Amino acid sequence: MIWQTSRFQIDLSQPRVMGIVNATPDSFSDGGKYFTQDGSLSAVLGHCEQLLKDGADMLDIGGESTRPGAPPVPLEEELARVLPVLRHAVQLGVPVSVDTYKPEVMQAVLDLGADIINDIWALRQPAQPGPSGHPGARQVVARHPSCGVCLMHMHREPQTMQAAPMEGDVVAQVLSFLEQSARDLRALGVGKDRIVLDPGIGFGKTVAQNFALLAHQQALLAAGYPLLAGWSRKSSLAAVSSTSLAAVAQLDTVDRMVPSVSAALLAVDRGARIVRVHDVRETVQALKVWTAASSAAL
Question: Fewest Cβ atoms closer than 10 Å to its Cβ: which of 81, 147, 278, 290?
Answer without folding.
Answer: 290
